[in-house]
């Protein structure tokens, strides 16, 4: 299998292991941060604001980040971004251990963390292509999706146990430490694998990336779809903790269990993608359909175990959608435009976070958790239908 063949490459294997450790810590912190806000405020809307601020830098910096990823040595950029996120996580842990944490500090931390992340994501994706080489990239996507979703499965469960037994600060501390294997790898990887990218006028380079997206219907369709679905159906950092606490009345361990159930469903999707030969764009449609179904099921008066099963379904749909759109774009884009097109894709995905997260929290406070989930599912379906009708009328599209 292409994905397993990549692990025979020592550089890629070390990168993948380091990335998995970091992803595990990130999911622990993500779960802990959401629960911390619910405990501090008891408000889904305020949780939505935190998530919105964490994604807000993507609206301003995603496109410049893509240009930077194509111009600067990617290893250098990753050392800066990974080191910054490690420092922020350790600082947050210090505030928690000192008992000095406030909602205001969470807002500041989330914004700065999001700023570092917006430069990290396009650089890391382009760096992954360098390590894997273009012909093995579908396998790299599947392998990275597998590790990401194993971390999604285990991270929230570990965080829930840590919060209940030892305290919130441990999740942030472990995340801060989890960046160090990647920092070590970036210090020893051969420079040739992370060389500087394109040169020239950065504004002209950015315009070239935008022009490519505009004239390529399947890429444009995928980007528009991921923004719409991201806005209404992939806001689990707000939806799940608020639903667990305010609708089901669960504690930290119960919340961690539901997040892990979603991770289990996502893992099933990732394994399926890794085992599959070839890429079928129709998987994107299947993924959106599963996501919409999960949201509509949350409208029903379900108990905790049933909600966990539904969230497993949501995790499966999310992976099919995200991996599908990512693979479609990565296999279509020329190498010299990769960082810029990835940054446009990430702008759509992460840029959906601020409006979507706040809207999700607001709807949950106004309508209640169940009704809000149903409304979000219907809106996601409407957007998917519109994009598919538009794409079907365009030439030169395989989707």
Automatic annotation (TrEMBL):
Gene3D superfamilies: MFS general substrate transporter like domains. It is a multi-pass membrane protein. Keywords: Cell membrane, Membrane, Transmembrane, Transmembrane helix, Transport. It is found in: Cell membrane. The keyword Cell membrane applies. The keyword Transport applies. GO terms for cellular component: plasma membrane. Residues 1-399 form the Major facilitator superfamily (MFS) profile domain. GO terms for molecular function: transmembrane transporter activity. It holds the Pfam family MFS_3. Its main location: membrane. The chain crosses the membrane at residues 15-38, 47-67, 87-115, 179-198, 219-243, 255-276, 283-300, 306-329, 341-359, 371-391. PROSITE patterns: MFS (PS50850). PANTHER family: INTEGRAL MEMBRANE EFFLUX PROTEIN-RELATED (PTHR23513), STAPHYLOFERRIN A TRANSPORTER (PTHR23513:SF11). This is MFS transporter. It comes from Oceanithermus desulfurans NBRC 100063.
């Amino acid at each position: 299998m292409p994905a397993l063949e990549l692990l025979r490459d020592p550089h890629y294997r070390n990168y993948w292991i380091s990335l998995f450790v970091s992803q595990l810590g990130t999911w622990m912190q993500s779960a802990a941060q959401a629960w911390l806000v619910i405990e501090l405020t008891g408000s889904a809307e305020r949780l939505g604001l935190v998530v919105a601020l964490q994604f807000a830098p993507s609206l301003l910096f995603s496109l410049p980040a893509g240009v930077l990823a194509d111009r600067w040595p990617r290893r250098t950029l990753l050392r800066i971004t990974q080191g910054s996120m490690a420092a922020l996580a350790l600082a947050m842990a210090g505030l928690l251990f000192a008992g000095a944490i406030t909602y205001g500090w969470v807002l500041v931390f989330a914004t700065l963390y999001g700023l570092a992340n917006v430069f990290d994501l396009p650089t890391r994706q382009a760096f992954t292509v360098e390590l894997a080489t273009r012909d093995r990239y579908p396998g790299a996507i599947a392998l990275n999706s597998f590790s990401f979703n194993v971390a999604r499965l285990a991270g929230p469960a570990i965080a829930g146990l840590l919060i209940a037994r030892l305290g919130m600060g441990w999740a942030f501390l472990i995340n801060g430490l989890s960046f160090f294997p990647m920092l070590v790898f970036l210090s020893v990887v051969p420079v040739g694998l992370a060389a500087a990218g394109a040169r020239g006028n950065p504004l002209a380079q950015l315009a070239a990336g935008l022009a490519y997206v505009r004239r390529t219907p399947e890429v444009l369709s995928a980007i528009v779809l991921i923004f719409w679905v991201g806005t209404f159906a992939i806001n689990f950092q707000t939806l799940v903790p608020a639903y667990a606490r305010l609708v089901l009345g669960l504690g930290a361990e119960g919340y961690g269990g539901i997040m892990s159930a979603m991770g289990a469903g996502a893992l099933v999707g990732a394994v399926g993608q890794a085992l599959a030969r070839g890429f079928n764009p129709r998987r994107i449609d299947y993924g959106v359909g599963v996501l919409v179904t999960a949201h509509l099921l949350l409208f029903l008066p379900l108990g905790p175990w049933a909600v966990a099963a539904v969230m497993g379904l949501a995790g499966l749909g999310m992976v099919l959608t995200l991996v599908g759109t990512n693979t479609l774009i990565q296999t279509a884009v020329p190498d010299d435009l990769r960082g810029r097109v990835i940054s446009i894709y990430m702008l759509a995905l992460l840029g959906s976070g601020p409006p979507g997260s706040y809207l999700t929290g607001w709807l949950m406070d106004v309508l209640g958790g169940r009704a809000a989930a149903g409304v979000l599912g219907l809106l996601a379906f409407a957007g998917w239908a519109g994009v598919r009708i538009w794409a079907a009328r365009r030439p030169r599209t395989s989707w």
